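To close the chapter, one final illustration. This time we ask the reader to focus less on the individual chains and more on the assembly as a whole: which components sit near each other, and how the overall shape emerges from the parts.
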Amino acid sequence: MTDRDPTEIVDLLADLFAEQGGSEYLGEAVTQAEHMLQAAACAEAAGASSALIAAALLHDVGHLFKSDSAGEISGAELMAGTDNRHSHTGADWLGAWFPDAVTEPVRLHVAAKRYLCTVEPGYFDQLSEASVYTLSVQGGPMSQEEAAEFARGPYARDAVTLRRWDEAAKDPEADVPDFDHYRALLADLLIPLL
Ligand code: FE
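The assembled structure is written out below.
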């Protein structure tokens, strides 16, 4: 078994944060990069596993791809009414390097919002205006049947936990560690090549 060079993907992620992360986060008062760094800081403060800290850090990486680079739809287009499926594009892309414990909470973090709107009284009311809007584009609250099926999934709990950090990570005043703080954690999580 040979390990691949972990600096390569970690550098690529750092570049994405630096180059694309400065854009607005879907109408919120923080940039994309600030938002993801705040989510990771919430995860670390909560004593989460390194995989879930990485998931929080990378949960919106699908928003960082330009619509022309991956053939995907940008965050701006999401706000214009087209679901960019950023949770899936992000998770699929990360899957080349990271295990399911990282990618699946990323994949499910939008579904977790739809789930919480159905099962938790009061959750919907504390969503930001932008998040309420994207909810409608992303399919709205789950049906009771969909919610029950979601809850049976092996990563449902992690996805719901990540979702709460996602909601909390929109503070324009927050002072949190930068991307470099997570380099070693990310490198340790990489799937070894056979
Ligand atoms: Fe987010």
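Residues 6-189 form a domain with the Hypothetical protein af1432 fold (CATH 1.10.3210.10). The chain has a mean pLDDT of 89. With these observations in hand, you are ready for the problems at the end of the chapter.
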